[in-house]
Design goal:
Layout: E1 5-13, E2 17-23, H1 34-45, H2 49-54, E3 59-69, E4 72-82, H3 97-108, H4 114-118, E5 123-132, E6 137-145
Length: 146
């Protein structure tokens, strides 16, 4: 590792003392580029072309619930097809950059993002995520169209 460099400042006050600036290069700072990770998450979340084509004829009303109590996990994922044409074509094919960046930040903190990716929908009416670590309970509820 490089040593600290001492560079005298060209200004002296009343010739009494010289002020020095010390630049410490021994610490290396890491720059986190969330944008690259968000782009990767967006690419991973892109829906297949068949599902996009299916959205031209049907949309699915979907309810996703995941509850964890005392280490035991329960999941409910119900999809009801609705024969409403063309509305599903307006839904996004992948995560927005904002959502992908939030997920990338959560992954950096060590959180499990599998359930968040699994619960993503084309259009969400409600998303509620409650955590009670003192009781060992967490719950995620998402209602929307996919």
């Amino acid at each position: 590792m490089p040593q600290a460099q001492r560079q005298p400042v060209p200004y002296t006050r009343d010739n009494a003392r010289t002020i020095e600036i010390i630049q410490d290069n021994s610490r290396t700072e890491r720059i986190i580029n969330i944008a690259d990770e968000a782009k990767q998450l967006q690419d991973m979340s892109t829906i297949p072309a068949a599902r996009s084509f299916r959205r031209l004829f049907f949309i699915w009303f979907r309810v996703y619930v995941r509850e964890t109590k005392y280490g035991k996990s329960e999941k409910v994922n119900v999809s009801i097809p609705l024969p409403i044409p063309l509305i599903g074509a307006a839904f996004a094919r992948q995560l927005s950059f904002h959502k992908a960046a939030k997920l990338a930040a959560a992954a950096r903190r060590g959180q499990d993002i599998d359930e968040l990716l699994e619960s993503e929908m084309g259009f969400e009416f409600v998303r509620v995520h409650e955590e009670h670590p003192e009781r060992g309970k967490s719950q995620l509820v998402v209602v929307g169209l996919d």
